[in-house]
Structure formats: structure tokens, C-alpha cells
Amino acid sequence: MPYFPVWDWIRSDHNEDETASILHDWVDKVRPLYHGIDINTTNIDDKYEDAISANHWSLLRFKRLIDLRQAALDEARRLWADYIFFLDCDVYITHPNTIWSLLEERKAIISPLVHSFVKKSAFSNYWCGRDEK
């Protein structure tokens, strides 16, 4: 695999678990492997006043996510990044060559299909129907 400098831009908020400390421990261990890592977990205590429960995707929560993604795009542009890869923390990439496989497709926009590990789940990262393939 060819080497290219990777810059991680990590944001974590609205956590009620040990996500922030796990992320910081990981960054401490892998920082030398990356061109740069920008991590910010200062908003971990944010609560969304329009949320019905801790896991409710309220309008304010959606706005926060949109703002974070826009900030990531802005930072990628500032760094003259060739690529940007978004990954939410509730998604686990288990194949070690996922990113390389996506890059080899040479598409302007591409995403892997994320499968749910919950049986009979209708979850998909695509907003359309899907079959067993």
C-alpha cells in the first residue's frame, strides 16, 4: 500500500460513557503514525434541550452534526486534503483495507455499505432499499 499523510480531525460530544477518554488514550498511542491529529472532546457534556431522551435525534442534534461535518469540510479544504472520510463512532470498520478499496474506485463521492450486526435490522447507511447482496 502506498503511504500518504493522513490527518485525523476528531470531534466527540454528547457522550454519557467513556468515549472521550478512550479516544484520548488511542490518540496518545497512535499519534506518531499520523501526519497530524486534531482532537476536541470539550463538548462532551452537551445536552440537547429539545431531546426526548439521551439517544433521541432531535433537530438541535441534527444541526450540531451538520455543523461538525461542515467544520470538517472547511478544515479539509484549509489543509488542501485530497480526500475526506467521515465515520460516526457507532460504526466499526473491521476490514483493514476499506479506505484503500474506496480510493481505488477513483470516484468523487463513495461510501462502503455499512451492515448491521443486529438480526432482522433494517439499518443501512443508504436511504434506499437494499437486498441480501
- Main sheet specs: 2 strands, parallel
In round numbers, the mean pLDDT is 81
Order of helices and strands: EHEHH
Coarse shape: globular
Radius of gyration: 17 Å
Structural category is alpha+beta
Number of strands: 2
- Count of alpha and pi helical runs: 3
β-strand amount: 5-15%
Neighbour order of strands in the largest sheet: 1-2
Helix content: 25-40%
The N- to C-terminal Cα distance equals 28 Å
Low-confidence stretches: none
Family: Belongs to the glycosyltransferase 25 family.
GO molecular function, one term: procollagen galactosyltransferase activity
Keywords: Glycosyltransferase, Transferase
Structure write-up:
- It is a single chain.
- This protein is an alpha+beta fold.
- Helices cover 29% and strands 8% of the residues.
- It is built from 3 helices and 2 strands, in the order E-H-E-H-H.
- The longest helix has 20 residues.
- The chain is globular.
Task: Pick out its properties.
133 residues; globular; alpha+beta; two-stranded parallel sheet
List the helices and strands and how they pair.
Elements: E1 7-11, H1 19-30, E2 36-40, H2 59-78, H3 98-104
Parallel strand pairs: 1-2
